[in-house]
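Minimal example, chain plus (2Z)-2-iminopentanedioic acid.
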Amino acid sequence: MPSGTRTRASRSLPGPRLDRLYTTLCRRNPGEPEFQQAAHEVLASLAPVLEARPELADPGLIERIAEPERQIIFRVPWQDDSGVPRVHRGFRVEFNSALGPYKGGLRFHPSLNLGIVKFLGFEQTFKNALTGLGIGGGKGGSDFDPHGRSDAEVMRFCQSFMTELHRHLGEHTDIPAGDIGVGGREIGYLFGQYRRITNRWESGTLTGKGREWGGSELRTQATGYGTVLFLAEMLNVRGESLDGQRVTVSGSGNVAIHAIEKAQELGAHVLTAADSGGYVLDEKGMDLPLLKQIKEVERGRIRTYADRRGTSARYVPGGRVWDVPTDVALPCATQNELDAEAATTLLAHGVKAVAEGANMPTTPGAVHLLHRAGVAFGPGKAANAGGVATSVLEMQQNATRQTWPPEETAAKLTAVMRRIHHTCYETADRFGTPGNYVTGANIAAFERLATGMLAQGLV
Ligand code: NDP
Ligand code: 2IT
């Protein structure tokens, strides 16, 4: 399991007022280290903007930004293939709707709990604000584990999950999508149940749908592609490109596979992929058709890749891809997977850039080391925003009953990633932290969110 979450006691924020806010937040959200960590990172970025724009420095405002508007927890009863009754817990945290309807993915993973959903919803709120699009933030999911379950079991689970969740959704209210453990198959079952219960073809209520029934071109690829497009922008600022660079990727799910695809398209030599069991290192570069066959078609494990690939690849059980010498690291699996020890190893090998395909995969200690060493670091709320931005393209097509061709969607995705990069870069510069995409992303998102909330009477 990922490690490296720093304890609350080891952190302090600039300024006694922010410090007090953080202390209160920890007291009111006990036992939720990921949520505390995500909130800390944002609060620690805000001092320059609160000083420069006193109209946004209302402590009540920041307190409200850190408090979800609504938290829904529900029972999900279902039956497995042997007829055994099972029960799991469902969550939807509707975090902030100042800028648009709640928008964010659903995660099915046994580790999921309320604190993790809150961290993801909080990150999503800032990510969505940063896109400049009209979407608020939310997140949800369940502690159900789809690994090893039959299609029929996954279907029954999804139907039960939606039987409760549907009453909270709507194209103007709350629009889920996928995340870990939730891909095209699950979105299909969820949408089918939503349609059955409501008797409405309300395609704008879920994104990540199949292209034949309301989905958008490129939504499946968008998060991984977008992460690499953001990375290319960061390298470009430094007079470099991806061509010929060695890249290591963690994970082998939706985000990882499409990050590998885009990185290879731009000339990179991608060396690794991983899952929770270990990683593969392929000296010849990852064979993407083989990887897709194993992970997407067969829903198999990454060790099978080494079995089938031949001598260029080996499987390292229990290992971490960050031990492999690389120019660029792309964490695309889960939170806190790249810790200070891993960052130290990456730096010893001369890493130049890290872009987060996953949400908060890099621990605060690792981010600090990378920044101090001058490595280009793209935080998830900026680098992986291409997924949710393409969800908005899907919603736009649903609202107008249109289907755009792939080139049009691709051009819009490229444009949004460039714009997000520019916003982060320019904001970091403007607030005296040049090259720091973390402060740039947090301040730019905060400015938009705070302005919207204040104008609406802080509700
Ligand atoms: P998938 O379920 O498709 O893939 C997840 C991958 O990460 C799998 O290879 C999985 O391995 C691995 N993984 C999951 N949990 C752990 C863990 N605790 N330790 C080690 N490996 C783990 O999910 P996605 O690719 O969609 O999501 C990956 C990340 O990207 C997440 O952080 C998600 O929040 C983020 N993200 C996703 C977006 C999307 O559009 N899907 C958009 C933006 C961000 P295994 O199969 O062994 O569990
Ligand atoms: O973390 C994320 O941005 C997602 N899981 C995608 C959210 C979305 O609504 O497309």
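The CA atoms of residues 126 and 323 lie 31 Å apart. The longest strand covers residues 85-96.
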